[in-house]
Amino acid sequence: MLGLMQSQNLLISGLLKHAARNHAAGQIVSRTHEGTTHRYTWAESERRARRLVRALQRLGVRESDRLGTLAMNGYRHLEVYYAAPGMGAICHTINPRLHPDDIDYIVNHAGDRVLFADPGFASLVSTIADAIKGCVRDVVILTDAANMPDVTLAPGMTLHCYETLMDTADEDYAWPDFDENTASALCYTSGTTGRPKGVLYSHRSTVLHAYAGALPDLFCNKATDRILPVVPMFHVNAWGIPYGCALTGSALVMPGRHMDGASLANMMNDERVNMTAGVPTIWLGLLQHLRASGDRLTTVKRIVTGGSAAPPMLIEAFRDEYGIRVEHAWGMTEMSPLGTYNSPKVAQAGLEGAAAVKHMLKQGRIGPGIDMKIVDGEGKELPWDGVAFGDLKVRGPWIASAYFGDEPGAALDQNGWFATGDVSTIDPEGFMEITDRSKDVIKSGGEWISSIALENIAVSHPDVAEAAVIAARHPKWDERPLLLVTAKPGHTIDPASVLKVYEGQIAKWWLPDEVLVVEELPHTATGKLQKTTLRIKYKDHYMGAAG
Ligand code: AMP
Questions:
Q1: pLDDT, tens digit, for every residue of 257-285?
Q2: Looking at ligand 1, which atom is closest to the CA of residue 448?
Q3: Is 189 helix (H, G, I), strand (E, B) or coil?
Q4: Which domains does the chain have, with CATH numbers?
Q5: Which residues contact ligand 1 via a Cβ below 6 A?
């Protein structure tokens, strides 16, 4: 027998409609590319999102079309976030920090029909224009006519100014109803080896994630909150915050490209921000600014940190020097991203001093609605005793089942679990702590670097026989790549010349900080490089480096 409750599709437009109707005056504040501050409300944002749909319809955009964005956090990007899925199309956020070759691969793989870009990425768009002309027909610069930059496109592509496009449209649009399992957004991740892979979110997964994320033991969004996501909107939908704020009517404060410590501190104080979220490297930069300038954060109560492990000094310094609580979260692009959040249960609520910090370093408990387990090499589940560590697997309604272009379920094991590539313990209270990573990648300042790509380039050097790149801990960037090479018989290696091989082939920040020439590299019985041995030996190689 079926229940007799109303059946209503969980749609992203429903979040925005709710905010416009119930939190019409709720604020959205953006620092623009030009450095000015733009303010409007959830009601105005919803009206402009409708107008954008009308403009997109005039460009011929249809359901299921992918609309790429190369943009920082700001109100125009937010409008694309809601207009694209609201009309049944897909908002495809692209990480502008990647090498242009990776960006054009991603745009072509996604088959983006339109590309939105901040004016700051005009030259990037010109660089990739020829390579993406097979799919992108319209490029829209997220600015007004007065600030349009020079952009060179390929034949067959049309350049538009966002505000001019908006001026030509009307708001006469009613958000349509459709199946909640329809794809809503696409985000590529390089979190696994090889080429970036697309995670295709649905309306249902996004709305469920927004509901769970707003819970008191997770982000705890309230209508009175003023939330500043430093985490970019091209990183897993800014951890779902743009959706979560609409759900609860919280004010959304967006810093654009101004993410240095001083700019963030000013914006947080000026806009009375009380909660903010981002990766540890951002918080270390903010801390450095506060200490150097003597500035205080007058309204911030909570900093959510995730994307990489939180260093203990971060938690201690903000707590002891500024009275701000740093809360630790863990997740992945494939998980929308929220997985675990470190909020105390009864047994942890009274912890103080060093014991409290030790506990806060754990990545936290799984959110309601999803599940996690740790398994050994044979796939057998390990106990939650805080000691046994194994491969961390997850499942639930906001976790990917396959990557874009693959068959549903292709990314899961036979029991429907997704392997995260993280290795962890889980204690008897359900707090998960990451101890290692089985995926062979480096996470620097919250961004991935592919060790395989770096190794392949290193072995193209005429003197290099074999190369291994490992993630070494770093005081500022969390991890940086360290390259170890062996020489071909009879050759000697000049480390500087190895670094020269990378020129033009990778994004500059991917360049290994150091090249170590070694006699030999360790191998497993099957002849594969034994990275674990290298990681143990060299993991602290950069820890003396100046921040
Ligand atoms: P991404 O898909 O780029 O969000 O990266 C997800 C991966 O980042 C996870 O699988 C972890 O390896 C790492 N990660 C995310 N949050 C944390 C955290 N709080 N502590 C340690 N590693 C983390």
A1: 999 999 999 999 999 999 999 999 999 99
A2: 3
A3: strand
A4: 7-211 (3.40.50.12780), 440-538 (3.30.300.30)
A5: 189, 191, 236, 306-309, 328, 330, 332-333, 337, 363, 420-422, 434, 437, 443, 448
